[in-house]
Specification:
The protein is mainly alpha-helical. The protein has 34 helices and nine strands.
Length: 788
């Protein structure tokens, strides 16, 4: 020990230390009921604001052709012009407006010209014939050539035999009249119009009524004959002529070649007629009464329902009287949030009393729940983007992207699984509420959170947090896939929803891992991940202890092993016990030479000090350890163990040494008999026990109490001359009994049943650590038989 340090110690010039106790303000914030009530009100207000303000059924992400998850009814009466119904009425009107056709006479004119040419050739040939009844053979040849020319002049297929009947059986004058009469009938047929049968497909009785554009440009509605009807009309009119039946039939077969459909579609006229009809069409106005169902749950949203939904949204935004409806809806949401938060309070008070009494833990719960609901609402708000509005398949993935397992994972790691499960239910309910009271979403998000909580039990690596969240995401993805198959969604949508669930799990894990260190520091919580990182023997404090206080380091290793095994035996946290035990004596590195395990045969500095000063130095290693722990930002439980591992126990060696010194200093003043009183004015000195007791506090949690007992057991075991199960058990029993009698475990939650398990664990571990070895012979003793 340097001369400067000795002077500081002797003169009492101690460097200032940061206090190990929380300040008055921190104590107030941690325990005040006023702060607890403030956390409650802030939580309710934040959840109401996030899950309610600007959110109602009119703001649900409803898209065409999606399965509706909630019933949406009209909150107010309204009317709107339906573009869809107007378009349907337009289509119906256009279907009722018949197209306009033109009557084509060119085919008739061509047939008339060909027939007149044939008649002229017949008349020319008959002029040289002796008689029509006995024509010359060469005349028949000329007539045959003329007939072939007639058929070739158009798409005509008249029979030469019919032609011969007209030539041979009808006088020329009568034949000319008969042909002209037939052409007159054809003109009438063409004037009425002939269609090919395609126009009468939808008319009853094959009666076709259509619009025909006249030669003067006017359009009239008339009945149009089919080709069959026109032929029938021709046959009936020819049968009325005063000619033999064979002649009438032959003439019919010739004239039928002149009948062909003569209707041609007039696009311009038809478009104009449709335009005039549409100009008279009024938009269809839909009247919706209050309470009328707009969208039914479980049904696919049709285009007409979506149009009504959007009209309802516009009506609500433009309705000044809607504020009262919004106020009532907000009041109902406040009641729901109050009920859920009160249920959480009662659950925590019954199942986790420690959390209920700690405003820090309550603040942590409130913060992560509010953050989680805010994240869900933020994902929900993405549905208003143009991309999701235009792509309904991508919009359907939003409920599965929401990180609903975010808060439950953090609570499970920083507090416990019980509170995490209740928070999972809490978050799932509000996720379903935000997305329109979706029961399926409540179930799947709760399931995913439970899977994530189960998978992160005793997590000690950050990668396992991501893996646990990934398992939760897989649960969401599998559920979305199965539900999508049941709803017969297309394969691309199924894959997108499956991928969204997986991505949600991974992203949730990454966010939790990134936020954990911040929350640990802010709320003084310690995870197993951080504890495992502190077991690295290259930590600066442990390295310093190895180099400057190797005896203390070895002592800490043994205490760590004892504490870890004992904590595992009573279902405490073995990792926490190990880490705290490793660092519990780091204060001894400030003055290592004052502790016997580090003196290694050198002189004992306590020999030159009085017992009270030595006790002060010994006690100081607690405060020095707290300072070093704070400087190196060790977790709060480690600092607590450093403060508590000695409790208020007595430093017996220096206490009894002081008593002996006091008794010795008064001995010369006594007369011969030791019972004689001291001289007048000299009273026996009293040794203050408080000077030789640690400042405390007493161990407050199981791991701290175990380390306190392990520290005493390990130190006392050094004095054992024989290590036997009986001696170890007696030693352990004596130390623990002494701590109980000294009231050092009064504030510890250890039970007597757990103390028995701790004793058994200490005995087992110490017996295996202090085992004996075989006594190997020396080289001289091994060589003696050979020399003999």
């Amino acid at each position: 020990m340097s001369l400067l340090n000795q002077l500081k110690t002797l003169l009492g010039l101690r460097r200032q230390r940061r206090t190990a106790e929380s300040g008055a303000l921190m104590t107030f914030l941690e325990t005040s009921r006023l702060v607890r009530g403030f956390i409650f009100l802030i939580t309710v207000a934040a959840i109401v604001a996030i899950s309610s303000v600007g959110l109602n059924t009119a703001h649900l992400p409803v898209l065409p052709n999606q399965l509706a998850t909630a019933r949406i009814s009209a909150a107010i009466p309204f009317s709107y012009e339906s573009a869809i119904r107007t378009a349907a009425a337009r289509e119906q009107l256009l279907d009722r407006v018949p197209p306009v056709y033109r009557l084509e006479t060119a085919p008739l004119e061509k047939f008339t010209q060909a027939l007149h040419e044939l008649e002229d050739q017949i008349v020319e040939a008959e002029r040289y014939a002796p008689s029509p009844q006995a024509p010359r053979p060469d005349l028949l040849i000329d007539l045959a050539a003329a007939f072939e020319a007639f058929n070739a002049s158009g798409p005509y297929h008249a029979s030469y035999d019919d032609f011969k009947v007209l030539v041979t059986q009808v006088p020329p004058d009568q034949r000319a009249v008969l042909l002209e009469s037939g052409l007159s009938i054809l003109r009438q047929i063409y004037a009425d119009g002939v269609h090919d049968g395609s126009l009468a497909g939808n008319m009853p009785g094959n009666v076709t009524v259509t619009q025909v554009k006249q030669t003067d440009g006017t359009v009239s509605v008339r009945r149009i004959q089919s080709l069959e009807e026109a032929l029938t009309f021709l046959r009936l009119n020819l049968s009325g002529e005063d000619v033999p039946r064979a002649v009438s039939a032959a003439l019919f077969r010739i004239l039928r070649n002149g009948i062909t459909p003569n209707l041609t579609f007039d696009r311009e006229a038809s478009t104009e007629r449709e335009r005039v009809a549409l100009n008279r069409l009024q938009p269809v106005t839909v009247e919706v009464v209050r309470g009328e169902t707009i969208i039914e749950p479980g049904m696919r949203v049709s285009a007409e329902q979506y149009e009504m939904f959007m009209a309802h949204r516009r009506a609500l935004s433009n309705n000044p009287d809607n504020q009262r409806e919004e106020d009532l809806r907000l009041f109902g949401r406040i009641l729901l949030v109050l009920a859920m938060v009160l249920a959480s309070v009662f659950y925590i008070r019954l199942e986790d009393r420690e959390t209920f009494q700690s405003n820090g833990r309550l603040g942590l719960l409130a913060l992560v729940v509010i953050l989680n609901i805010a994240l869900v609402r933020a994902v929900f708000s993405l549905s208003g983007l143009d991309f999701f509005a235009a792509n309904s398949d991508w919009a359907s993935t939003l409920p599965y992207i929401a990180p609903s397992a975010f808060a439950p994972l953090i609570v499970a790691i920083l507090i416990d699984a019980g509170s995490a499960i209740f928070m999972a239910l809490f978050i799932s309910i509000f996720t379903g509420v935000i997305y329109g009271n979706r029961l399926d979403l409540i179930v799947v998000t709760f399931l995913a959170s439970i899977v994530a909580i189960f998978s992160c039990q005793d997590v000690r690596k950050r990668s396992r947090v991501v893996r646990a969240a990934g398992f939760g995401g897989f649960a969401i993805a599998a559920f979305a896939l199965l539900v999508g198959v049941a709803d017969q969604l297309p394969a691309p949508t199924l894959f997108k929803q499956f991928g969204a669930g997986l991505a949600s799990g991974v992203l949730t894990g990454i966010m939790v891992v990134g936020l954990l260190p911040v929350l640990e520091s802010l709320f003084k919580r310690t995870t197993n991940i951080t504890l495992l990182e502190l077991t690295d023997y290259n930590h600066p404090l442990l390295r310093r202890m190895q180099l400057e206080a190797p005896g203390t380091y070895h002592h800490s290793l043994i205490v760590a092993q004892l504490s870890e095994n004992a904590a595992g035996a009573i279902n405490a946290n073995p990792l926490l016990a190990r880490v705290c035990a490793l660092f519990h004596d780091i204060g001894k590195t400030v003055k290592p030479e004052y502790f016997i395990e580090n003196q290694r045969g050198r002189g004992n500095p306590h020999d030159d000090n009085n017992p009270s000063l030595s006790a002060l130095v010994i006690k100081s290693h607690v405060k020095e350890g707290v300072d070093l722990a704070r400087k190196h930002r060790l977790p709060r439980p480690v600092i607590d163990v450093i403060q508590q591992h000695h409790g208020t126990s007595l430093i017996r060696y220096f206490y009894h040494r002081e008593i002996s010194r006091t008794q010795t200093s008064t001995a010369p003043f006594r007369r011969g008999d030791s019972k004689d009183p001291l001289p007048p004015g000299l009273a026996p000195a009293e040794v203050s026990e408080s000077t030789y007791r640690y400042d405390g506090p007493l161990p407050q949690f199981k791991e701290s109490a175990i380390i306190s007992l392990a520290d005493g057991v390990e130190a006392a075991s050094r004095s054992l001359r024989r290590v036997t199960p009986q001696h170890l058990n007696e030693l352990i029993e004596a130390i623990i009994k002494d701590r109980i009698d000294d009231h050092q475990l009064d504030e510890s939650p250890l039970t007597f049943a757990e103390l028995n398990k701790v004793k058994a664990s200490f005995a087992f571990t110490m017996l295996n650590m202090l085992h004996s070895r075989v006594d190997y012979p020396s080289e001289e003793s091994a060589d003696k038989p050979a020399k003999a």
